[in-house]
Amino acid sequence: MFVRINKSGKRRYLQVVESYRNEAGQPRHRVVANLGRIDGMEDGHLDTLIRGLCRVAGRDEPDALEITHAPAKAFGDVFALHALWKDLGFDRALVRALRSGKRKVDVEALVRAMVFNRLCDPTSKLGCLRWLDTVAMPEMPAKVEHHHLLRAMDALMDNVDRVEAELAKQIRPLVDQELTVVFYDLTTVRIHGEGEVEEDIRAYGMNKETGDIARQFVLGVVQTAEGLPLMHTVHPGNVAETKTLQAMLATVLQRFPIERVILVADRGLLSLENIGALTDLANQDGRTLEFIFAVPARRYKDLVGTFRTLSFDEDGLAEGRFSGHRLIVTHDPVREAEQSQRRQDRIAELVEMADKMTEKLNAQDAGKTAKGRRASDRGAYSRFTRAVGEAELTRFIKADLNADRFSYRVDEDAVAEAKLFDGKLALVTNAPDLSPAETVARYKGLADIERGFRVLKSDIEIAPVHHRLPDRIRAHAMICFLALVLYRVMRMRLKAKGHSASPRTALDLLERIQRHTTSIGERTLNGLSTITPEQLELFDTLDLPKPA
User: Fold this and answer.
1) Which domains does the chain have, with CATH numbers?
2) Which of 82, 239, 383, 521 has the fewest beta carbons closer than 10 A?
């Protein structure tokens, strides 16, 4: 049996033909089935052909195949993050730390999903479930429910010491072993909920974002000079910053066995007691601990005499002594002028306010009438002192509350003393081999950790936190910290290759690589959208494999 083309005028027909012998034994051909016009088939009309073949085979003609297209799922961003996660060894670290035969959920996969969610589309844990339905997450359980995520968070905290130790092992090879500059800073994280629970870390304290009292917890982050986060700490929302420092450093020294550490921290962490305790802590292991702290403004009064004797070089740098340590001071004349002028303007506004009230009071005493309520000296004192307090100028403007008549004075000596510190940054350090310029440069590197906090609060959206239990809050902080590590490693790799994209921009671009699923009858076909040269370049820049 074979297929042949039969011509009839300008038309061509396809036929199924079989060979046979007639009664005389001669070979002949006969048409078994007409399959239709070839020109129609070329137009994509194959129904006639299919029906003809079914007649030849003695089968029923099939129904039309149903074709369905599943919603496309984002793939490129989660694929890249998964590749980076494995490259850093975080998958192996969590598996080692969370090894348990009793656990029925894949904790590593669930933690990984929550970390990636912070980077791709930060939402609540319920929102994370909805997000998982929109992405083609590699190596995920078939079904994930809300309680699975919560159980994974609990597993993290049940094994927190092992988890942090194993993660540190994976981060350690990325740290400079010869000279490590460690930056440490704290931020506050807003949190919802009114009730109280046992060992609650939700406490009211001064929020660093708003400057108001808020219910919160305090998050500390330690990072290298290259911007690599090493570890994080979680504290109650009302903790004194200085009390967090010793425990943090003890952990850093334990997890990252380096010979020399230069600790850089901001004003809120400096205390002379801390300095002594930290130095003793480092010396116990025979290591050298050096520090660079900014001197808090409240200690500047102790430096008045020192500042008056400082001699600044052409770069605006000077060196002195403070409490037995090196004092490095940098001077910015432009900033000095701005700060001095701003103070004078605020003082002038209050002096004008006071003069107007005095004028009104004098006019009343002279028997003159004026519109509005009658003024009083006590009322003038009340209004004026409140305005001075709100302007934070009580050091410079003094109201004489003991006088019968409203009066005040500007303390010019206090103004001159304050001007002495305008445009200046004071640092205390025990590093013997750092020049003043190097010391200032090291301290200014602390600004990078502030950028990390902004990433946590904007891109990763660590706040507001809706968890109530202390360990759930700590688990949430750890998930956000891991997201920050991935973000920073991406940034470091992009920067090293001179790529202009930020991690956020890179993930947005890779998200456009989608996985498509099409069903044709009983067959299922999977495929990816076309990967652009720009997307391929990102995989190369990040040193990650390309999706196949």
Assistant:
1) 2-64 (no CATH), 177-296+430-491 (3.30.420), 334-421 (no CATH)
2) 521
